[in-house]
Amino acid sequence: MVRHFLRDDDLTPAEQAEVLDLAAAMKRDRFAHRPLEGPRTVAVLFDKHSTRTRISFAVGIAELGGHALVMDAGTSQLGRGETIADTARVLERQVAAIVWRTSGQERVEEMAAFSSVPVVNALTDQFHPCQILADLQTIREAKGGLAGVTLAYLGDGANNMAHSYLLGGATAGMHVRIAAPAGYAPDPAVVARAEEIAAGTGGSVQVTTDPKAAADGADVLATDTWVSMGQDAKDLAVFEPYRVDEEKVALAGPQVSVLHCLPAYRGKEISAEVLDGPHSLVWDEAENRLHAQKALLTWLLRQTATEEGGG
Ligand code: CP
Ligand code: NVA
């Protein structure tokens, strides 16, 4: 049966751990794994800007022995109104997997519904699950494990990163704290799903408007841009208290690691001192996109009976 990765809870806790183990193995021996030898092609489609996602999928697919067909989807017929379903029907006969960065979550869901090859969410307005796999790999490297680790995310609690930390962190058995201004709390349905997952993994979920309480004693401090791609201008003054700065790092304690998916806006959601300081793991985090996604693609293709006839 075809397996897709559209949101973080598409992997069970055991499956997430398998993917992260594979990611660690792929990082240790970077050029030894070539499941896409042939080469088989993976379509990597973008409706939004990207540096890390575009590069890490293109490099990763090449390192797996495959070929990355990287395309701005707006220049395809999709951009002129061809349906997602018809695009999926064309792609599935030629490629081994489809990776797509787009706006609404329902768009990747529709692509998956009509595709017999794995569809991977490379960021939607609601979730950024590939980023969270890389973040979890980075946290495992720094802390030696994930279960019981406390991650505090400060900033826009209603965006894709916050939602993915909730689902992915709960799946990993972490304690996830989201601190966001009033009006920017996470989607209650995502919080409820994260709580349900956490009940089974020993993790926990906390949503607050108090950034200092969230940072207090946290093992990991994370943030993201206050203005995500596609969002209208908003009042940034309400976010000021949520900046990850020296004060929040001090509240967390000397053990804290700092994550940011990047691109970062120094002086906005994170101070330059912290982003470029000794607690920051952001460059490892950006590198781990490569290893985590190679592992994810390999894992999804192993689970999926391939019928595309050679790609
Ligand atoms: N973190 C991340 O997804 O970066 P890009 O937008 O550059 O791909
Ligand atoms: N929340 C950000 C993440 C960028 C990688 C956005 O959607 O723009």
Description:
This protein is of the alpha/beta class. Strand 5 (150-154), helix 6 and strand 6 form a beta-alpha-beta unit. Residues 306-311 have low confidence and may be disordered. Helix content is 40%, strand content 14%. It contains eleven helices and nine strands. It folds into two domains: 13-128 and 289-309, Aspartate/ornithine carbamoyltransferase (Rossmann fold), CATH 3.40.50.1370; 130-286, 3-Layer(aba) Sandwich (Rossmann fold), CATH 3.40.50. A five-stranded parallel β-sheet has the order 7-6-5-8-9, sandwiched between helices. Strands 2-1-3-4 form a four-stranded parallel β-sheet, sandwiched between helices. The protein has helices spanning 13-28, 52-63, 84-91, 105-113, 129-143, 160-171, 188-201, 211-215, 246-252, 272-275, 282-303; strands at residues 41-46, 67-72, 97-101, 119-121, 150-154, 175-179, 204-208, 220-223, 257-260. Residues 50-53, 123, 131, 261-262 line the site of phosphoric acid mono(formamide)ester. Norvaline is lined by residues 123, 128, 159-161, 224-225, 228-229, 261.
